[in-house]
Design goal:
This protein is α+β, with helices and mostly antiparallel strands and 425 residues long. The chain has two domains: 196 residues, 2-Layer Sandwich (PmbA/TldD fold), CATH 3.30.2290.10; 222 residues, no CATH class. The protein is built from nine helices and 23 strands. The strands form five sheets. It has a six-stranded antiparallel sheet. Strand 16 and strand 17 form a beta hairpin. The radius of gyration is 24 Å and the shape is globular.
Amino acid sequence: MEKLLKIAAANAEQADLYYTESSSDSIIFNDGKLEKADSSLSSGLSLRIIKNQRAGFAHTRNLLDPQALVKQAILSSENGVEAKYQLPHNVQAQEKVVYDPQVEQLDKNELIQKGNELIGYVKARTDAQFDLSMWYGIGKSGLKNTNGADLSRIGSSFGIFAQMVFPGTGSGLYTHQSGVSPCWISNEELDELIALYDVCQTQIVPPTGKMPVIFHPQSMHTLLWRVVEALNPANILSGISPLCNREGQKIFSEKFTYRQNPEDTELSSATAFDDEGTPTRVLYFIENGVFKAIPMDLFYAKKLGKEPTGNGFRSGIESMPGTSVFNTIIDPGTKSLKEMIASIDHGLIVYSLMGSALRKHRKWRILCGCVQRSIDPNGKPIGRVKDCMLSGTSTTACKTSWISKTSLTIWEDARCRPCFWTGSA
């Protein structure tokens, strides 16, 4: 890699080299039966060069000819995007510990046995189709550039996902756990899932109109990815984001705070630097309802005349860096999920969704089909809502009355909580 970087430095004004190495395993049970148990290894590297203020890019999984890779990157720079930014110089960053050696010591046969025990527990209590999957792995990555940056990281991850499928459908109720270390689904969680599944055997047709809605943590991504799209600097630069020219304005409920914390090492994406070598930072996107900050990679920071925030990440070696939020958190509110449910006479709990769609960025439009639970006047779920359209806007939803103080769920690289919203069904 040193040879490759030297060749790139001799042929371009700037260059960086990003490399990865990973091992992963997965176990999948379908309807209580082991379907497959896979293992995979991968590695590779990508080269970005800046020549004549244009970015060029090339990648490979087998570096046989460094000169050819540099030539390919230079060729692509002839029609590359504008790159008037400087790559980070001599970055010094203390990497976060998001690695648990226990993940490397896991025995797949033992996990299959534990999976069968979990399935046995469920099958003894219900005849529902029960699907189970597990995944775990180790990932290493690093970055070197011609300005002296030399950074590396290692991380581990483990996840388990359990779902009870409604007959004749592809949808169902699910629970999951994930993190840096091995984790498991408890019998108490399964008991709750089974009880809810039994309730959902009754199908409810709610009246049309405006009604209270509670988004369960597992469905909060429906709201949050619209907020994330609005925060995306590409959408702000092009003028299609509803947040354009609104920094410092109160847009959401004062109870809504949405931020990223790269120091939260319970989330597997915690890191001291992004995939461009920029140091990461705690960043409040929305604080007490006020729009405070835009995540920035090097490209959009230069375009918008702002400082990069350490949000330049790559989806793999095949892609150039792009802006991405990570390790995101919704700050807690003052009511528990039970208190939120008990406070309304009737309404919906959005446990999972199918067919959610975004219409126009400027209107934050939400269309959600197949919400899962209906609430009776006593504050208890009474059945499943099927083929129901839930509509509204993200701005309305995030002008929510309450954010839960409990019921925290870790979903991939985010901490999500239930929120209350009044929408239309």
